[in-house]
Amino acid sequence: MDLTSEKAEIIKRFEQVNDATLIQAIKSLLDFGLGKMPENNEALESSFDKALKQSEEGETRPHREVMAEIRARYKK
């Protein structure tokens, strides 16, 4: 499939989405892919602050442990 066909398929599928959270996630992904970072995004800043606090308090897990758990959960 060529790039134009891929885009058309994505648009077709996107038009069927009725989940506001999924739409926002897709918009954020597109912004990121285009090198745009949202300005004054309180939710994003809050998320970063929470992650930093968790890290400072030792509430983290190694990446390899998390990935192993995800792979096991979604193993086909």
Question: Could you explain how this protein is built, in words?
Answer:
- By secondary structure, the chain is mainly α.
- It folds into 2 domains: 1-38, no CATH class; 41-76, no CATH class.
- Helices cover 68% and strands 0% of the residues.
- The protein is built from 4 helices and no strands.
- It has helices spanning 3-14, 20-33, 42-56, 63-73.
- The model has no long low-confidence stretch (mean pLDDT 88).
β-strand number: 0
As a whole number of angstroms, the C-alpha radius of gyration is: 17 Å
Number of domains: 2
Strand content: under 5%
pLDDT averaged over residues: 88
SSE class: mainly alpha
Helix content: 55-70%
CA-CA gap between termini: 25 Å
Anisotropy-based shape: extended
What is the ordering of alpha helices and beta strands?
A: HHHH
* Helical segment count: 4
Largest sheet: none
Low-confidence stretches: none
What attributes does this structure have?
76 residues, single chain, 4 helices, mainly alpha, 0% strand, 2 domains
Short description:
This protein is mainly alpha-helical and 76 residues long. Helices cover 68% and strands 0% of the residues. The chain has 2 domains: 1-38, no CATH class; 41-76, no CATH class.
